Amino acid sequence: MKGNTRVARQSVGRAARKELPEMPVVDDKTIDFETIELLFFAYRDFVSDPDAILAKIGYGRAHHRVVYFVSRRPGMTVADLLAILQITKQSLARVLKELIDSGYIRQMAGPADRRQRRLYPTLAGRELALALSEPQSQRIARALEGFTPEMKEGVCKFLEGMSRSNKDGQAATEGAG
């Protein structure tokens, strides 16, 4: 009996591979597939240059995000960074430790509250953040070439709208700086 079940499963598997799977009916007017795809491709290309730089030193996108925000907001607390990245302490701990151990970030006690941990980029950390941001900035400049100030404002408004953290319209980055 066992052998028959196996044969039956194999023949069903072969038959299934010959026919296209049933697809749900989708009203293309309700889902903006074109914009979704453009965002996928834009993100893929936007992170490709920094990814290549990071790969050479054994780091990934999580390291990039930490170095970027610590460089943009020197003295930020670990709690602030957790809120911006919307990750857990556990997720941040390994990446932050690697960046501190490698000399890219310095962690210091807060001046008023010694329990508070403040983060600062070292010179090497700042240089890494700039090296990662430069190709992204150039990519943005090329994409915005020929845009009027009003058009650029529209792009920024769109991106801010995409990063909304809740339904009341408060931006995800508000209060983070």
Task: Summarize the structure in words.
It is built from 7 helices and 3 strands; from the N terminus they run αααβααββαα. The protein has a 3-stranded antiparallel sheet. A hairpin with a 7-residue loop joins strand 2 and strand 3. The longest helix is centred in the N-terminal third of the chain and has 24 residues. The model has no long low-confidence stretch (mean pLDDT 87). It is mainly alpha-helical. Keywords: DNA-binding, Transcription, Transcription regulation. This is MarR family transcriptional regulator.
N-to-C terminal Cα separation, in Å? 68 Å
Oligomer: single chain
**How big a fraction of the residues is strand?**
5-15%
The assigned structural class equals mainly alpha
Briefly, what CATH class of one domain?
Mainly Alpha
Strand order of the largest sheet: 1-3-2
**Main sheet summary:** 3 strands, antiparallel
The H-level CATH homologous superfamily of one domain, spelled out, is Winged helix-like DNA-binding domain superfamily/Winged helix DNA-binding domain
The CATH architecture of one domain = Orthogonal Bundle
What is the tally of beta strands?
Answer: 3
- Note the total helix count: 7
Runs with pLDDT <50, length 5+? none
Write a brief caption for the model:
This protein has 177 residues and is mostly helical. Helix content is 62%, strand content 7%. The protein has a domain of 116 residues: Winged helix-like DNA-binding domain superfamily/Winged helix DNA-binding domain (Arc Repressor Mutant, subunit A).
